[in-house]
Amino acid sequence: MARRTLEPSALFAAACAGDRAALARALSLLERGDQAAREMGRLAYTRGGTGYTVGITGAPGAGKSTLTSAVIRHVRTAGTEVAVLAIDPSSPFTGGAILGDRVRMQDHATDPGVFIRSMATRGHLGGLSLATPEAIRMLDAVGRGWIVVETVGVGQVEVEIAGKADTTVVVLNPGWGDSVQANKAGLMEIADIFVINKADRKGVEETRRDIEQMLELSDLAHDAWRPPILATVGSTGEGVPALWDAVTGHRAFIGGSGELTRRREHRLREELREIVARRLEHRAREVCTGERWESLQADVLERRIDPWSAADEMLKGVGA
Ligand SMILES: Nc1nc2c(ncn2[C@@H]2O[C@H](COP(=O)(O)OP(=O)(O)O)[C@@H](O)[C@H]2O)c(=O)[nH]1
Ligand SMILES: [Mg+2]
Hints:
Elements: H1 8-16, H2 20-32, H3 35-47, E1 52-58, H4 64-77, E2 82-87, H5 99-105, E3 114-119, H6 127-141, E4 146-152, H7 156-162, E5 167-172, H8 178-185, H9 187-190, E6 193-197, H10 204-217, E7 229-232, H11 240-257, H12 259-287, H13 290-301, H14 307-315
Parallel strand pairs: 1-4, 1-5, 2-3, 2-4, 5-6, 6-7
Helix pairs in contact: 1-2, 2-3, 2-6, 3-6, 4-11, 8-10, 13-14
The chain binds guanosine-5'-diphosphate (GDP) and magnesium ion.
């Protein structure tokens, strides 16, 4: 029944009861960002709070999806349930995932303990940065304890999203220059754990030294948590148990130090601020149309009124 209805509360209830198709539809509904999405968001927010997010980020081709798949395989041997949100802002119409991701993730398609979703934003007012936390809250609300978020670590918005996880893993490759690129992209600041993936190739030690040098120059090296630098081979799973140990170690560390609470509060405050800003922008576009707008523009152009006074006129009685 829930498959056919779009009514948010019925969909939400079905998703919470473990109906995967309903969960997928609930996420699609959230991505649209309309009134029904608002209602879904309200339902999810009141129920969540126990899930933990792990961000996996890095340049395209670094091996994030391969590594994510290996991480899933590893945690599933212990029976841990996991959800994956793969974010690819470059292809909103295909649902976000490139074919390679799809194929790799098929390995887990029949495992009920794994839920994989790629994100698209379609009409969402706030774009990816506001759609992502809502999708995460939905996965959290239905009881997914671990939520892995794969993001491409290029571009300001993407790096911002990547840095919003509870634990952020930055994936680099061996060889000269990769860490320099990562540093430029702003990935060094958000890293809780570094992974040198494709460690079957030459140059692991050079990359490790590069990262260490950059850490020395940044504040990170002097924080209570010094990001470990690990080596993995995503395609064989080598190094993945140690990576997962580092993730759970970081979780325990920030849980104990109060940093987890601080991070989450900071994220919520930022999100709230962004929602207000986006809604005001949206309202501004609505307001700047029509007759009054046209005539005020004419007044400004003919110097009967200055731009700031004209804006005051436009903003009279405007709510968002
Ligand atoms: N040699 C080698 N290749 C890898 C490794 N991990 C991933 N790859 C390959 O690197 C390519 C990009 O991997 P993918 O996971 O799609 O990267 P993403 O864009 O970061 O998600 C694919 O061809 C993978 O098979 C690894 O550890 N060693
Ligand atoms: Mg990928």
